[in-house]
Amino acid sequence: MSNPEVSVLLPYVQPDQDLFTAIGSILDQQGTAFEIILVDNSASGFPQLLHNFNYDERIRWFHEPQSGIAHALN
Description:
Layout: E1 6-12, H1 17-27, E2 34-40, E3 59-63, H2 69-73
Parallel strand pairs: 1-2, 2-3
């Protein structure tokens, strides 16, 4: 997505149902252009997460291995 009005930064360590629920809830929002920036802070990475959302162009995924929440947010 080019030039979103809002960026939602969502770091995580263990992808679980709560993460999928949060992403789904964000994607259901309407009225503004937005992107979701997922920061995977696990040791192995989990790009398969994107398969659950059919490669939605509003989702960007980065892997920052075990760097901690502060680094992931930066």
